[in-house]
Amino acid sequence: MTDGWSWETFSDAFPFVVKGIGITLGLTVTCYIFALLFGFVWLFLRRIPVKPFSWLFTWIMEFIRSTPPLVQLFFIYYGWPTVPYVGATISPFACAVIALGLHFSTYISEVYRSGINHVDKGQWEAAKALNFPTRLKWIKIILPQALPPMIPMLGNYLIILFKEVPLAATIGVVGIMRLAQDYGDQYWNYLEPLTIVALLFLALSYISSLLTSWLERRMNFKFDKKKAIA
Fold it and tell me: Which chain regions cross the lipid bilayer (predicted)?
């Protein structure tokens, strides 16, 4: 153990910690895809015309949003195998995907809902008047107008999710956070490996932010171009 900052320790810890970047990024992307897909499930469940069912799913979403993701992570990893007649053990990676993906899907569902509500009522009426099939109505009319307003919030939730992924280290997912903890436990030097984790998250979050901004500008440009042609 060294007193204060040591560049030698930083150089030694960096290759050890950075080995987990693939797991961290892979978990982030998998959780995000899960959240994007399951967000549609929540969206359609809430649109069920039967009020009791709509209220039920709305309450479930509120419960998930109001519960810390760490508690949900522990519940699925430690609690689920103890449920009677279940007894199935879930791998740490799969558990993290389910817990974090499900948690963020409730927020992404709200993004979908606000984006769809952003579409002018006249567009829905035009699609109905033209007798568009449901698939073409969504692909040609609704989604091209609903998607651009969604991009900033979807990008923000990707960055937030990326910063929540270190919670998976608590159940044994070997990402950069877990490797930093392992290095600190082995050499009793926590400052340098945790600084490396912070720098990696800062760099990757900044890149994600730039990518989101670029995608937002591109989507808006395409939408404005289509409106000009129309």
Answer: 20-44, 56-79, 85-104, 157-176, 196-215
Question: CA 112, CA 149: separation in Å to the nearest integer?
Answer: 10
DSSP conformation letters of 105-154: HHHHHHHHHHHHHHS-HHHHHHHHHTT--HHHIIIIIIHHHHHHHHHHHH
Distance CA 62, CA 47 (A): 16
- Domain borders along the chain are 7-229
What is the spatial distance between Cα 100 and Cα 93, in angstroms, rounded to a whole number? 11
Is-contact 28 155, C-beta < 8 A? no
* Ordered per-residue pLDDT tens for the chain, 230 residues: 666 788 999 999 999 999 999 999 999 999 999 999 999 999 888 888 888 888 999 999 999 999 999 999 999 998 887 776 666 778 999 999 999 999 999 999 999 988 888 888 887 777 777 777 777 777 777 877 888 888 889 999 999 999 999 999 999 999 999 999 999 999 899 999 999 999 999 999 999 888 888 887 776 655 555 554 45
CATH number for the domain formed by residue range(s) 7-229? 1.10.3720.10
For 230, the token pair is 């129309």
